[in-house]
Amino acid sequence: MRGTDLNTVERPYGGCGKCLLGVRRLSRVKLATSSPERQRENVLTAAASVGAHIIGWADDWEVSGATDPVTRPSLGPWLRDEKGPYDGLVAAAVDRLGRNVVDCLNTGYKMRDEKKMLVTYGHDGAWDLDDPADENRFTMEAWGAQMELRAIQRRNRDATVKTRAAGRPKSKPSYGFQYVRKLMGGKIDHVELHPHASEVLREVARRILADPENVTCSSEAARLNRAGELSPADHLAVMYGKPDAQPSAAESRTGVGRRASPTHAGAGATGSRQGGSARGAGGRSSHRPATTGGRRPHGSRRPTASLPIGTPGCRAVASAEPGVPPRPLAPPPRVAAG
Ligand SMILES: [Zn+2]
């Protein structure tokens, strides 16, 4: 099946009865086997194997498997019949439909009841949930996906509890903060505000809170781009002495991103130095020209990601009062820039 030209499998809706919707989902978890490209290939291959074609894609990136398919930004509207006719769903695997037995079965039975097709890669032909054997297998795959999700959640929770109990920070510093080590490459001693980034973030918060009608996360992202301000990912890369931002999970999966070569990572790579990393804080980071090839602008999404407009991007800022550090919950203002 790999040999066939998969591009011909993508055709607009034609009323042939096998006009199927490709479903893709990706959480932040890095798994090469679920890269967007791999999922695309698998979906097209599966569609071709049942003589169907793909009329469009319901892509939900960075959507956890715990999300009910009906409320997923891209797939949801299709399932609620708001996007027009389609004859069924194709996914790379059952766990791409959802990581929850109830959700998978709901979606599966909905397709059955509406006489729509449900196809996943690796299963011969469309699922026939009226056939007990097929129904059992589908249920088992959904159950497997759910158990996997629970295991992932437990691992993450345990890791958080452990690092918290040990008084250690987990993962990378959020935008606006930096880790301080007493010894180069040593244990993180404490967390403090990044002198430059924390100001950028507070300024954003002040501006939005002062005029929420006219100043939005998107307009702030645009303003920071015009000013040549580094995006959080690039800021982090500069802070850690890397030549360029590490490709995001989604990018490295598709090969879109550029690997940060370790050449300049040497001394500064292990952490920001006390007193503000020389390269990160004031100098180069804030004045890098907007034309720098590798720079990812504020508010830009990864090339492979399609984030629906209106997705909240304002989570980053909770307080604009001077002296109260804003608590970024996630990489701050990153809004779909279209
Ligand atoms: Zn068709």
Short key terms for the protein model shown above:
single chain; 338 residues; alpha/beta; Rossmann fold; 4-stranded parallel beta sheet; 10 helices; disordered C terminus; binds zinc ion
Mind sketching the topology for me?
Blueprint: E1 19-26, H1 36-49, E2 53-61, H2 75-79, E3 88-91, H3 94-97, H4 101-113, E4 117-120, H5 132-165, E5 177-181, E6 188-193, H6 197-210, H7 217-226, H8 232-239, H9 249-254, H10 284-287
Helix pairs in contact: 4-5
The structure holds zinc ion.
Overview of this protein structure:
The structure is a single chain. With 338 residues, the protein is an alpha/beta fold. The chain folds into two domains: 6-149, Rossmann fold; 177-316, no CATH class. Helices cover 33% and strands 11% of the residues. It contains ten helices and six strands, in the order E-H-E-H-E-H-H-E-H-E-E-H-H-H-H-H. The protein has helices at residues 36-49, 75-79, 94-97, 101-113, 132-165, 197-210, 217-226, 232-239, 249-254, 284-287; strands at 19-26, 53-61, 88-91, 117-120, 177-181, 188-193. A four-stranded parallel sheet has the order 2-1-3-4, with helices on both faces. Strands 5-6 form a two-stranded antiparallel sheet. Strand 5 (177-181) and strand 6 form a beta hairpin. Helix 4 (101-113) packs antiparallel against helix 5. The chain is elongated and about 65 Å long. The relative contact order is 0.11. The site of zinc ion has 5 residues, from loops.
